[in-house]
Design a protein that fits this description.
It is a single chain. This protein has 150 residues and is of the alpha/beta class. The protein has one domain: Response regulator (Rossmann fold). The chain is 38% helix and 11% strand. The chain is built from four helices and three strands. Strand 1, helix 1 and strand 2 form a beta-alpha-beta unit. Helix 1 runs parallel beside helix 2. It is globular and about 40 Å long.
């Protein structure tokens, strides 16, 4: 199972989701991330690095952002947009992805808003990944709408 997390810049939410999914899902899925407006090679934001290290002992210091256009979309079983804007961009840019693009996770972008905002975003990401983990473990992956409850 391959999952792609997508946000705008690929420096906050999607790298946090990728790192946490790798830790929580283990062998259930392979997680990656990209951004619809990302510039290749940018570091994760300082807030993302700090909150991931302090809350989950996950090191994002080596993360390098990448553009969604540099990703082979066909390689992923599920593509998870972090917010509604990204979901709309995905549908417009990649209509062939269809049901593989799940409904927006509606995670607020914490960029430039301080550690409290990063904490809130991360806790929502954690909650969503816990739900994802349950569904993957229950082998209910055949129903691609399982993440559409919100």
């Amino acid at each position: 199972m391959r999952i792609l997390f997508v946000c705008y810049g690929n420096v906050c939410r999607s790298p946090m989701a990728e790192g946490l999914a790798r830790k929580m899902l283990g062998t259930l899925a392979d997680a990656e991330s990209a951004g619809t407006g990302a510039m290749n090679g940018r570091d994760a934001s300082k807030g993302a690095i700090e909150i991931m290290r302090s809350r989950f002992d996950i090191d994002l210091s080596k993360h390098q952002s990448r553009r969604l256009s540099d990703v082979r979309m066909d390689d992923f079983d599920f593509i998870i947009p972090m917010d509604d804007s990204v979901a709309n961009d995905l549908k417009g840019m990649y209509p062939q992805t269809g049901a593989r693009v799940v409904q927006s996770w509606k995670i607020d972008d914490p960029f430039g808003k301080g550690l409290v905002a990063y904490e809130r975003s991360l806790m929502e990401i954690q909650k969503r990944i816990e739900e994802l983990c349950i569904h993957l473990r229950d082998k209910s992956v055949g129903n691609r709408q399982i993440y559409s409850s919100r």
